[in-house]
Write a structure and sequence with these properties.
32% strand; globular; 5-stranded antiparallel β-sheet; 11% helix
Length: 71
């Protein structure tokens, strides 16, 4: 079975990336209202949608594939 980026679901404590900026964030909590993330370089915790995040490097469709597709 092949896992695609659409099937990816983050886990609390996981390091992922924001789609818009490419900044690394840590998933703090997943709730019905959204995904709470905190920037790794300091900042305020905020709520985002799954579509706003890019899977980690080792996941299919992860950050390296996403970054290559931007260029």
């Amino acid at each position: 079975m092949t896992v695609t980026a659409e099937q990816w679901v983050p886990e609390a404590g996981q390091r992922v990336y924001e789609r818009r900026s490419g900044a690394a964030v840590e998933v703090m909590e997943i709730s019905k209202t959204g995904i709470y993330v905190r920037p790794l370089r300091g900042g305020v915790e905020r709520v985002v949608r799954l579509a706003d995040l890019v899977p980690p490097d080792d996941a299919p469709g992860g950050f390296f594939e996403w970054q290559a597709s931007r260029g």
